[in-house]
Amino acid sequence: MSKYYTPKRSRNIYEPGSEEPFKLSRSKVDMYLECPKCFYIDRRLGVGRPPGYPFSLNSAVDTLLKKEFDTHRAEKSAHPLMEQYGVNAIPYQHKDIDVWRENFTGVQYYDPDLNLTLTGAVDDVWVNPKGELIVVDYKATSKDGKVSLDAEWQIGYKRQMEFYQWLLRKNGFDVSDTGYFVYVNGRTDLEAFDGKLEFEVDLIPYTGNDSWIEPTLKEIKECLDGDAIPKSHEDCDYCGYREAVNDVT
Question: What are the residues whose beta carbons fall under 8 Å from the beta carbon of 10, sequence distance 6 or more?
Fold first, then answer.
């Protein structure tokens, strides 16, 4: 069996009636919105979707960007990208910034009414002169033309930022509605590789609206407490594959 995938697991499965808080990550909330059936099978029945393989280049870009912005965080200075785009802010200094950026910990909020602990790992947080925190997310790609947030599938990026904004607000911080995507685009228009990959870097603002989150969390709790597997989303590739396999076996 692949070392990257364990189909059935015994840990972190939701048990109705349990008094223990159930931890739910931002990505699992997004899975529910993508397909309630996949979410239920994963969190309630303990059978996860096959994972995608890690994008090592994207991870390398994330690591280097964090180091770069951390230099300005230590100096309490604006990054040149902020100055280029007229963003009046500096990287935010906080004792928990590394925890907030760590997978499997991240920013956390416990909802006592739902008995859920919600988590999400941010890429970065800036702060403006008014003391508002600004959520920042790093994205990497390689495509012709300028990067944007116009594609339908990028709704997941927008929900991701809104969820981080919501988590920080629930922790008592004043958070700007406007966040930023540091979007780097690998250039393919050069004459040669020469042992290096060059990127164009854009800063794309996005005004978030987190009003969908709390109603969605209530739906999720009802889904987890139910005994019937919900219907799949009509566009879910995973469910489509399962149904196709059942038709031929």
Answer: 46
| 112-130: pLDDT as tens digits | 999 999 999 999 999 999 9
Contacts of 194 (CB under 8 A, 6+ apart): none
Rg (CA), the chain: 20
Q: Is residue 192 part of a domain?
A: yes
Note whether residue 11 is domain-resident. no
Question: Could you tell me the residue range of the domain that residue 53 belongs to?
Answer: 22-248
pTM (2 d.p.): 0.92
- Kindly give, in sequence order, each residue whose CB lies less than 8 Å from that of residue 224, ignoring residues fewer than 6 positions away: 14, 16, 22, 40, 43, 44
Residue at 13 is within a domain: no
Q: How many domains does the chain have?
A: 1
Dist CA 10 CA 53 (whole Å): 23
According to DSSP, the residues that pair with 135 across neighbouring strands are 125
Determine, yes or no, domain membership for 15.
no
Burial of 231 (0-12, 13-18, 19+ CB in 10 A): exposed
Rounded Cα distance between 70 and 239, Å, is 42
Q: What is the pLDDT of residues 165-192, one digit of tens each?
A: 999 999 999 999 999 999 998 888 888 7
